[in-house]
Amino acid sequence: MHFYLDFEKPIAELEGKVVELRRLAAEDPSMDIADEVKRLEAKAAQLLSDTYGKLTPWQKTLVARHPNRPHFFDFVDRLIVDFTPMAGDRVYGEDAAIIGGLGRFRGRSVMVIGHEKGRDTKTRLQHNFGMAMPEGYRKAVRLMSFAERFGLPVLTLVDTPGAYPGIGAEERGQAEAIARSTERCLTLNVPVISVIIGEGMSGGAIGIAAGDDVMMLEHAVYAVISPEACSSILWHSAEKAQEAAAAMKITAQDLLSLQVVNRIITEPVGGAHRDPATVIDATGNEIANVLDGLLKLSPDHLKRRRRERYLAIGRTVPAG
Questions:
Q1: DSSP codes, 87-114
Q2: What is the DSSP string of 280-296?
Q3: Surface-to-core class of residue 225, CB atoms within 10 Å of its CB (0-12 exposed, 13-18 middle, 19+ buried)
Q4: What is the spatial distance between Cα 304 and Cα 295, in angstroms, rounded to a whole number?
Q5: How far apart are CA 119 and CA 130, in angstroms?
Q6: What's residue 315's pLDDT?
Q7: What pLDDT, on a 0 to 100 scale, did the predictor assign at position 26?
Q8: Is residue 202 within 8 Å of residue 251, measured between CB atoms?
Q9: Which of 58, 40, 198 is nearest to 114 (CA)?
Q10: What is d(CA 249, CA 255) in angstroms, rounded to the nearest whole number?
Q11: 186 and 306 Cβ atoms separated by less than 8 Å
Q12: pLDDT under 70 in the chain at which residues?
């Protein structure tokens, strides 16, 4: 069953009518409703296209959080062959919010690291809704260092509402762990490609997203803080989240213009959740194209290029 967001209610009504007409036709084959179904389908498709062609930053945030949006394991299952997870940080324990391991991407050995939110209640709890503990970021550091040792490119898939803010995480050095993970991204001798596939919030995202090339899905969001948290700080209420989302420039389109990300991966009309296979394949094509170029660069060139890229962010801001 398709899950509709609040702003999709008119679309839901039209698509619901189509489903109902088809049900009636199945019960009574003598009914001639083909033209009506075709008309409603065209109307629903046009409404879907119009709606998704002018999403507000807040609506994009809702799309990025859609429960049916493809997650880390969906990308891995379709893009990575012989994926072998590697567990533990060798200091404290295993964290299930950040998954990492070895595999083959289009014939090339790679290290894949990313957030996994979980799909249902059981797996969401298991993966802590994609909110990583310090041991998750220390595991990421360990796997990135492993990849560097064996000359393997690193692919990261970012989808988190933020690192876990609990007392235990803070006691185990959450801020330091995120900082070390970010530093490791920046100092690797191998290519690092990061893709924001859903939410990319706070240091929990940047900890594995400081890559040579950062991509965003069309309706993903990327920011230093969630709109609700920003609203709570500025207006002492989460009710201004929509205004905060607009002011924070969190969309892929805004961030491309600010040169925070390198490219946008187009999603199917209606969002990635309506056609996961298409958007995952498109992501794979973009990664392959970028990776071919990065592999031609020397380690020193990679690190220098990466350093210059991040130092340049914010130096020139487009007018408007």
A1: ---SSS---SSEEEEEEEETTEEEEEEE
A2: HHHHHHHHHHHHHHHTT
A3: middle
A4: 15
A5: 11
A6: 79
A7: 75
A8: no
A9: 198
A10: 7
A11: yes
A12: 1, 316-320
- DSSP lists the bridge partners of residue 158 as 196
Name the DSSP class of 274: G
- 3-state class of 150 per DSSP? coil
Q: Give the torsion sign (CA, 223, 225, 226, 231).
A: negative
Question: Among 234, 215, 209, which Cα is nearest to 284's?
Answer: 215
Round the CA-based radius of gyration of the chain to a whole number and report it. Answer: 21
- The pairing of strands 221-223 and 263-265 is unpaired
pLDDT at 316: 67
Backbone angles phi, psi at 269, to 5 degrees: -60, 125
pLDDT of residue 197: 98
**Whole-number Å distance between alpha carbons of 195 and 207:** 13
Q: What is the DSSP letter of 258?
A: T
Report in angstroms the alpha-carbon separations of 105 from 187, 282, 292. 23, 14, 12
In the chain, count H helices and then E strands.
Answer: 14, 8
Structure tokens at 214: 């950062």
Residue 283 CA, distance from chain mean position? 11
193 and 290 Cβ atoms separated by less than 8 Å: yes
Q: Is 63 helix (H, G, I), strand (E, B) or coil?
A: helix
Other beta carbons within 10 angstroms of residue 163's beta carbon come to: 29
Residue type, 190: V
At residue 317, the pLDDT reads 63
Tokens of 146: 């492993």
CA 241 – CA 226 distance, rounded (Å): 8
Kindly state the tokens that stand for 219: 């309706």
Q: What is the three-class DSSP state of 28?
A: coil
Phi/psi of residue 86, nearest 5 degrees = -125, 125
- Residue 12 structure tokens: 């839901």
